[in-house]
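QA checklist item 7 of 12: single-chain prediction sanity check.
[x] sequence parsed
[x] length recorded as 487
[x] structure emitted
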Amino acid sequence: MKEIVTDIPLYIDSDTNPLLEGGYEPIGTEINATDMEVIGTLPADIDGVYVRNGPNPQFQPRGRYHIFDGDGMLHAMQLKDGKAVYKNRWTKTRALEMEREAGKALWPGLLEMPDRTLPEMWGSDDNLKDVANTDVVPFGGKVLCMFYQCGEPYLVDPITLETESIIDMDAMDARLISAHSRTDLHTGEFYFFDYHTKPPYMTYGVLNPDGTKKHFTEIDLPAARLPHDMGITDNYVILHDLPLYWDPELLKRDIHKVCFFPENPSRFGVLPRLGTNEDIQWFEAEPGYIYHVINSWEEGDEIVHDVCRMQTPCPPDDARIGDTKYASLLAWGAMDAQYYRYRFNLKTGETTEGVIDDQCVEFPTINQYFQGKKNKYSYCVFIPQGEPLRMGGIIRYETDTGNRTEYMYDKNVYASEPVFAPRIGATEEDDGYVMTFVEDMNQDGRTELHIFDPHKIDQGPICRVVIPQRIPMGFHACWVPGETIKN
């Protein structure tokens, strides 16, 4: 049964931009759906919500569109007692509410010059619209929606998907937060960082489970940087200072051109969870860039930091995908990251590093109860090369050996970041299910939830739930255990 909650006709001219067409084309409906078609048997031993974030612009973009510009929309599948309920909602950011009142887009996007006449802007240089479209993590019985280049954290009910409030960072004498901040499911604490083009170039902090400030400190960096993620272990956090950032000379003219500076090393700052800048131990490594961390943990005197590391941090100036005027932009979406491991020795100060697997993978996930602890398994998506960013398959890795098991989708089929959902009463790390939303443009955008047995990824989904509307390509996802949800 499909109930339409909101139906907004979208009159968006893609202007030949593939990031507004096909698998990326936005939708204008918010729905509730129950009693959906199920192919296979829906597991009855699971309780929680799979929530995925992503861009879904409501108005014609002001200038050239980048997927980080699209208004955040959440898609959620609640699974309980062998039944499935689907909902989707726009995250009601302050910026979206202002644009709805104006009836048009107000902010230029990531690819345009900032409009410094606007009354309010967000981001690492106070130059962007905060769309809260990038990451989503469980926190305090809700989910927290966050923006790629630093924004306000929005609390959303994982069952209703109603936007409830903003955590007021300014009232706590903190700044914005980056997209990839992390919740420790064991303590309920939230670990975050932000970065800015003006000093302090980075800050780091911790929130208590009730959203109040527990810890906050400034981090010294040589200049403005553009880190994307962080890691946590039982006792430490790992912050990134990587040589992909804005051209400092162009930045003086308010031009935000990202460049790779291979003459600079990658640096990783390891500090105690409640440490300050004075407690950081910096480790140097080969120049590179990391969008997403798989997991981190402690082994004796070493910190192990598993990541998806880009082989080509910045595409050559003449790199192109397709033949439209957006071809060079799409080249940035050809993510060629590999499963990569760093070891930081806290006693000797030495770094060892190397590739675990040469497959192009990204958007990693694990059983989140093992975040910060040594995990046996992780799950990534395969990234096909030579086309706009597409999640083309699901890969399971064994941490100790790097061995992989994979399931690949056909061309024009878009998976989402997978999540691992533990079974009720699970005692083993891989006792549960892996799931992902899948949009099939070969079937006019037919979208399904695919549920996998993690031990048999290569055999395909054991269950498929047909969703009565299309779910466009998106970014990050999380699993919210039913036992943690507060209504």
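[x] summary fact logged: The chain has a mean pLDDT of 95.
[ ] second reviewer sign-off
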